[in-house]
Each structure stands twice: as C-alpha cells, then as structure tokens.
Design goal:
Bound molecules: pyridoxal-5'-phosphate
Radius of gyration: 23 Å
Number of domains: 2
Distance between the termini: 39 Å
CATH architecture of the largest domain: Alpha-Beta Barrel
Oligomer: single chain
Mean pLDDT: 92
Largest sheet: 8 strands, mixed
Low-confidence stretches: 1-31
CATH topology of the largest domain: TIM Barrel
CATH class of the largest domain: Alpha Beta
C-alpha cells in the first residue's frame, strides 16, 4: 500500500513534471479582484454592519476536494488555528478531513463538533503537561515534539502515543515564515526519535513546516531529502518510520504571483519518490491557509480620508478594521491582501490604516496601494481572501472594538 501511493501518483506524469518548472508567473488581472461567488455578493449587498468576515463554505469544500485530488493517499489534517469557525470544522469533518490542533481549547472545539479524538493531531510542540494529559484522556494519540523535555512530558502523560519530531526549517520564500521558534536540527531529531522509542512512545516520523504562504514548491524538496537520510540512519537501529508530515504552507491568493496547486503537488510527489525510493512513508499534510483564506472576504468601511499637509499627495485612508481587528498578518506588510471598492474612477496612491489609537495600526505604508481618487467616507472596501488568520487573530476588545464577526454562508 505504501508503494502504490507513489506509483499511482506518478503514473502518466511523464514530461508534465518538467513542464511544471518554467511556469509563467500568474499575474492577477483586475477581473480576478472583482469576482466573488454569487452567495457572497448577495450577502455583501445586504449591507450588514461592518466590519465583518463573510465566508463561503462551498469554496472551502472545493479547496478540500482539490487538495484531496492532488494528494489522494495523504491524511489531510486541517490546521484549526487558521479559522476555528464551528461551521468550517463541521463541513471538513463531513468531507473526511482530520484536524491539527494547537491547544486543549481547539481540542474541545473539535470534540464539540463531533470529530473523533482519533482524527486529531496535537501539532504544537509547546504544551503544558496538564493539557497533554487532558488530550490523551480524551483519546488523542498523535503529538509533535521538538525537544527532549517535551518528549519526557509526552512519555509521562501520553504513554505509548504516536509522536512526530519537528525539524527546523528556514522558511525561505514564505511570506509568513515560521522559522527558528519550532523544530530541532537533524542530529537532535536522530537522538530524540531513538529516545522516544526507549521511553515507550511510538515514533512515527518527522514533521516540518516550510513557512506559511510558501510561494516556492521547491522548498519541500530539501526537508524531504533530509528526512529520508534520517530515516535510513534510524533504520540501522531497526527504527522504521512509517510517516512523514509535510506540514502546511500551501498558499492563498493575495497580491502577486502564484503557481497552481498542481505544481506544488507534483514537486512534492516527485521529491518524495526521489528521496525515499520505492517504499515511501505515508504522507500527512496540515493545510490551514490554503483551505479557508480564499473563501473569505472582509467588508469594511472608510472612516476617514485625510492628508497630513496641503502638499501631501498621498492620502491616508482609515478603515474600520486594522491590525487589531483581524488584519494582524499585515505586520511588516507580510501579507498583501487584494482590495475591492465599488468605484471605477482613476486611482491614486494611499496609506491604509486601521481605526485604533495605536500608531502600529497602519496596514500598508511601504507597499504601494492605489484606491480610486473619489473614494469617500462611508464607502465600503472589501478585503479579499481573508478567510484565514483574521477572525482568530482579532483582539477581544482593544480600544473597545469587538472581535471580528464571522458569517459562514
Ligand atoms: C499553522 C500550522 C499549520 C498551517 O499552516 P498554513 O501555512 O496555514 O497551511 C500546519 N501545521 C502546523 C504545525 C502549524 O503550526
């Protein structure tokens, strides 16, 4: 069964693998910026009070099916932290998705939606002992670690559980890198995986994350090769690892260029095949952003348009949502959302800012953004592909503003 995955996945690919390499960048046309599903358009047209996130569940479904088609044998674990809306959990559970949880609270959320504990992986490498014990008591049997102390906690509070060792990753070419904080180097992974067996745990393999909003499929290749070499070395100690967890990182549609999912899938399948040969491990994948980002749109309203002096050519546009209301990923202007307004006139450059009394609450200043010159107070501005890492990042009441309202349609 392990071999049939790679064989069937690589069948009939032939030259198409190569055809994937010199991809023309896909430049977003203005038309892309304007197309939302009829369901979303209809909801926006009813003008609920702003700001809010509206999310089309059909779009989440389609993304899941697309991913499943590209990775037919992989275990797909949705990273709940990307958007924990119960309707999303329920939908994905119905489609057969599994889930990656980061805390006991996400565990409770999944259980409350009827997800069996056996479908959950506790992927956070930083866990309190009481939370490990709680998860184990609930039936969770899959945990990640990246340090000796965490491994010891697991052996004490989740005896016999399946464990995956997180590898360090560079986060190169990712718009939202997750490097440094997570993972250990290969030498330590080698030691700790052997030790996990000695401690009575069940070592399953390694896990890595190439960085969120990863724009380069090639970034999966090196960790895959390193994992394969590690598995060979551990094999000499009769430690056979049956799984590899290739993490999240698959991108959403923001400003800029993207290669299609099929190219990511081809590159990953090919590197799995080349690294592990005829009997590769089972693949686990943990998409967050990819599944939910494009399904969502935030509708906001212009509170103020201002200049800082009579000579100032660049307008400041203040929206009723900012960094603290859900757009935290504009930190360092990492994630560059596409915007839509309902005016068609000539455009001019803007600095975009949020509504709070904090000078950090500026969304885009270095990045050049243009909006219609006749944009006025009270106009609606739509922020596209905002279904991931928005509602879950919104503050509970900074400056008194409530958390971001979410409507799943
Ligand atoms: C956040 C996270 C993910 C999801 O990452 P995306 O880039 O949103 O796909 C997957 N796995 C782990 C362990 C994570 O922490």
């Amino acid at each position: 069964m392990q071999t049939s995955y790679v064989n069937s996945a690589l069948e009939n690919e032939g030259d198409s693998v190569l055809a994937c390499v010199p991809l023309q960048p896909h430049v977003l046309s203005p038309a892309d910026n304007r197309s939302l599903s009829p369901k979303l358009e209809q909801f926006l047209a009813s003008r609920p009070e702003t700001p809010f996130l509206a999310l089309d569940l059909d779009s989440v479904r389609n993304k899941f099916l697309e991913l499943q088609k590209e990775f037919p044998q992989a275990a797909i674990h949705y990273a709940v932290k990307a958007n924990p809306a119960p309707a999303i959990i329920q939908l994905l559970a119905t489609l057969g998705s599994r889930f990656d949880i980061a805390s006991r609270y996400e565990l409770d959320l999944c259980l409350s939606q009827g997800v069996p504990a056996a479908w959950l992986s506790y992927g956070n490498t930083v866990k309190k002992s009481v939370d490990i014990a709680y998860a184990f008591g609930c039936g969770v049997r899959l945990f990640a670690f990246d340090s000796e102390a965490e491994l010891e906690k697991l052996s004490r509070h989740a005896p016999g559980a399946g464990v995956q060792c997180r590898l360090l990753s560079q986060g190169k070419n990712a718009d939202w890198p997750l490097s440094r904080k997570f993972g250990c180097d290969l030498g330590m992974a080698y030691e700790l995986l052997l030790k996990s067996r000695d401690l009575g745990l069940s070592p399953l393999g390694v896990t890595f994350h190439v960085g969120s909003q990863q724009t380069d499929p090639q970034q999966w290749v090196e960790p895959m090769q390193q994992a394969a070499e590690l598995y060979r070395q551990l094999g000499r100690h009769d430690l056979e690892l049956g799984w590899i967890n290739i993490g999240g990182g698959l991108p959403a549609t923001y400003q800029g260029t993207l290669v299609p999912l099929s190219c990511y899938a081809q590159t990953i399948r090919q590197s799995l095949h080349q690294s592990f040969g005829a009997s590769p491990p089972y693949v686990m994948i943990e998409p967050g952003r990819f599944l939910v980002a494009d399904a969502g749109v935030i509708q906001s309203e212009v509170i103020l348009v201002a200049h800082k002096s009579r000579e100032d050519v660049r307008r400041w546009v203040y929206l009723d949502i900012g960094k603290f209301g859900g757009l935290a990923e504009t930190m360092d202007e990492c994630i560059k959302y596409r915007l839509r307004t309902h005016r068609d006139g000539p455009m001019g450059s803007v600095i975009l800012a949020g509504p709070t009394c904090d000078s950090a609450d500026v969304l885009y200043e270095k990045t050049s953004y243009e909006l219609p010159l006749d944009l006025a107070i009270g106009d609606r501005v739509e922020i596209l592909s905002t279904g991931a890492y928005t509602s879950s990042y919104a503050s509970v009441g900074f400056n008194g503003f409530p958390p971001l309202a979410t409507f799943c349609l």
